[in-house]
Each structure stands twice: as structure tokens, then as C-alpha cells.
Write a structure and sequence with these properties.
- By secondary structure, the protein is an alpha/beta fold.
- It has two domains: 281 residues, NADP-dependent oxidoreductase domain (TIM Barrel); 82 residues, no CATH class.
- It has 14 helices and eight strands.
- Helix 6 links the parallel strand 5 and strand 6.
- The protein starts with a strand and ends in a 9-residue tail after the last helix.
- The structure holds iron/sulfur cluster (2 copies).
- The site of one iron/sulfur cluster has 15 residues, from helix 12.
């Protein structure tokens, strides 16, 4: 069976408007709880938490545990790579950030149409293979949000890759855009180890609409909503690691519990999940997983992930103009140096960053219309 991985993309922060303000005390407790539970796989990236993700890993894991007691996976930031001369310095920086001499798992981060400047123009594959030969990497792979055809091309061209990190959950399983199932099948066809990200689809599957929860509880009152999502991914064949990106100790403890009790879903339960998926789909307005890849690209400093999250929650409370989420948006708008939805100048710099293919400027117009109203405290 797979092991539960500690994803470090959404760590707790002291100031929710500053992704670098990591709550180190809280993360340290989470790391200790995770290690005590018998798991030891950490996943970070050069770009997480606006560049402090890897050093947070060093402070909370490398500096406190023997090197052979944990495994570390990180990712080469294809988003910023345009030429070969960048590779050595960035890789050396990553080793230093993480405080290690070698990485257990090293990925090209999000190989897809978004990053083609890097993987088309720079020989990234030879670079990571070379690092493996030098003993600086144990296993090489990729993370991708590309579709199955794209994945097949990569795996055909690069037999040296050992694993792939894929977005898999019961909502995206048969989705024609994300193609979780088809990508999983391609990875198996090429005998690759599979790592899973987004098992809760950015939190949507942990907080489902009441109607969906009712169906789940009617079938099995003892199982939590998140347990269904965890049971779906934890029992897929050829999966090595299921990453969850907990933001609190409580979430982490829940994930550990659900993972350890993830018995396989039966056929009836799989059918129920299809109905649940339809209900959730009809309630989600914006398919944003809060990965924040777009946020750095925004020239107007709009915290796109945050305003989409508020908008989704607002939309779930049908037919209400004022909601607590509109109020939270008003509070956000008063922070120094942030842009709001109507500040979007439609430059489209963010669109290519979004792995979910969201037309961000278009959705921001809807957000402005919903939130920037008199009833929510904005002057027209
Ligand atoms: S299109 Fe709008 S949201 Fe996107 S980067 Fe430009 S200003 Fe920011
Ligand atoms: S809009 Fe897209 S890129 Fe931005 S946080 Fe959401 S899913 Fe990520």
C-alpha cells in the first residue's frame, strides 16, 4: 500500500496575507506528529510559500532528524528557467535550502504547456540524469497537470524517468480536462511509480455540499466526508505516495487517521461517489485549487487564489447578496498593497500559469460584480 506524504505547499502562516510568514512552531508540531505516525515522505518545491518552502523543510525536518530517517522530494522551478546556465546554481541553491547532500526524489515541476519555454529550450532531462549519476538525486521524475496524451509523449521520449506526480481524486477521475484516470493508466503502462497530489481537490472534497454529505452519511454514518476521498486514492494500484497538504495540526491528524483506516471502496460506494461528484460540480463556481501559481504573475497584486476561494464560498450560499465572504473580501480590500478584482487590467499574464485552465480575468469580472457592491460596503 502507498504511504501518506506530507505536502508542504499550504503550511500554516502567521499572517494570512503573507505566505512567507510560516508558523514554524506549528509546522514543527505537525512534522513531529507525522514522523511519530510512522510516515516519512516530505514534498516541497523551490517556489512554495514564495520561496521559503524548502528552507522551512530544513528548519523543521533536516535540522531536527537524522538524514536516513526521512525522504525529501522537491522540484526544479521550470517557471523561471530559460537557459542552461541557470540549472547548476538553482540546483545548488535547492540543496542548500533543504540542508541536504542529496534528494530522494527530484522532479521537473509541472511539465506542461505552461512551462514549455523551459523543457523545449533547455535539456532538463539530461541535467537531472547527470545529477542522479553524481549521487545528488536518488530518483528522477516529473510533476504534471498535462493530459494523458501529453504524458504519454513524455514517458515515451524519456524512459529514464522513474515516477510521476499526478493530480488524482474522485472528482477528476473521469474529468475530460484533468484526465486523472487516463493519466494513471498511462503511467502504469510505462511502469512508472505514481505519486498523487490534490486528493481533496484543493479542499473541495473535504467540505462538500450538505446534499452530498447526506448521501454519504446515509450509506455509512461512521465514515467522514474526507474518508471517502482518501479511500478512493489510497487503494489505487501502483501508487507509492498520497500527498496531502495540511494547513493545521488538526487536519494532519485527520489525514493520518483516514489514511490508516482507508479500506477499499466497494462498487456501491464508487457509484455513490459519482453522484456526489455531480452534486459538488453543480456547486463549484470556479475550479480553483488554490495552488497560487498565478499570484506571483499578477502585476496588480491581486491575491487571485484568495478572492476565488471567497467567491466560491459566497456562491454556495445561493440567493444572498451579503454573505460573511463578502465582508471578508471588504477586509481584504483594505490591506495595503493588494489589488482587488476590479483592478484587473486583463493583461492575461496569469492565464498561462493556471494548471486548471481558468480564464482568470473573466472570472474576476464576476467576482467584482458579486462583491464590490454597496451592500458589501463598496462605494459605487
Ligand atoms: S489578467 Fe488581471 S489577474 Fe491576471 S495578471 Fe493581469 S491583472 Fe492580474
Ligand atoms: S486560479 Fe489557477 S493558478 Fe491561480 S490559484 Fe487557482 S488553480 Fe492555481
Amino acid at each position: 500500500m502507498a504511504q501518506l506524504g506530507f505536502g508542504m505547499m499550504r503550511l500554516p502562516v502567521l499572517d494570512e496575507n503573507d505566505q512567507t510568514s510560516i508558523d514554524l512552531e506549528h509546522v514543527t508540531k505537525m512534522v513531529d506528529t507525522y514522523m511519530e505516525s510512522g510516515f516519512n515522505y516530505f514534498d516541497t518545491a523551490f517556489v512554495y510559500h514564495e520561496g521559503v518552502g524548502e528552507s522551512t523543510f530544513k528548519k523543521t525536518v533536516t535540522d531536527r532528524y537524522p538524514r536516513d530517517s526521512f525522504k525529501i522530494a522537491t522540484k526544479l522551478p521550470l517557471f523561471v528557467i530559460t537557459e542552461e546556465s541557470q540549472l547548476e546554481p538553482i540546483f545548488a541553491q535547492q540543496l542548500e535550502n533543504c540542508g541536504v547532500d542529496y534528494f530522494d526524489y527530484f522532479m521537473l515541476h509541472n511539465v506542461s504547456g505552461l512551462t514549455e519555454n523551459a523543457w523545449k529550450n533547455v535539456d532538463l532531462y539530461s541535467f537531472i540524469e547527470q545529477k542522479k549519476q553524481e549521487g545528488k538525486i536518488k530518483h528522477i521524475g516529473i510533476s504534471t497537470h498535462g493530459d494523458a496524451e501529453f504524458l504519454e509523449e513524455i514517458l515515451f521520449d524519456h524512459p529514464e524517468l522513474e515516477f510521476v506526480l499526478l493530480q488524482i481524486n474522485y472528482m477528476d477521475w473521469e474529468d475530460e480536462g484533468i484526465q486523472s484516470k487516463k493519466c494513471w493508466e498511462v503511467a502504469r503502462k510505462y511502469n512508472k511509480k505514481i505519486m498523487i497530489m490534490e486528493p481533496y481537490k484543493g479542499g473541495f472534497l473535504a467540505d462538500v455540499p450538505e446534499e452530498a454529505e447526506k448521501i454519504m452519511k446515509e450509506y455509512n454514518p461512521d465514515k467522514s466526508v474526507v474518508s471517502w476521498a482518501m479511500r478512493f486514492v489510497a487503494n489505487l494500484e501502483d501508487v507509492e505516495v498520497v500527498l496531502t497538504g495540511s494547513s493545521t495540526l488538526e487536519q494532519l491528524e485527520s489525514n493520518i487517521h483516514e489514511f490508516k483506516n482507508a479500506d477499499p471502496l466497494n462498487d456501491e460506494e464508487l457509484e455513490i461517489l459519482k453522484d456526489v461528484g455531480e452534486i459538488i460540480n453543480s456547486n463549484i463556481t470556479v475550479d480553483c485549487t488554490k495552488c497560487r501559481y498565478c499570484v506571483d504573475a499578477c502585476t496588480e497584486n491581486i491575491d487571485i487564489a484568495k478572492v476565488f476561494d471567497l467567491y466560491n464560498k459566497h456562491q454556495m450560499l445561493e440567493d444572498e447578496d451579503w454573505t460573511p465572504f463578502g465582508n471578508a473580501y471588504l477586509n481584504y480590500s483594505k490591506l495595503p498593497d493588494v489589488g482587488i478584482a476590479s483592478d484587473c487590467i486583463e493583461c492575461e499574464a496569469c492565464i498561462d500559469e493556471c494548471p486548471q485552465g481558468i480564464n482568470i480575468p473573466d472570472v474576476l469580472k464576476d467576482v467584482a460584480e458579486a462583491f464590490e457592491t454597496e451592500v458589501n460596503g463598496f462605494q459605487n
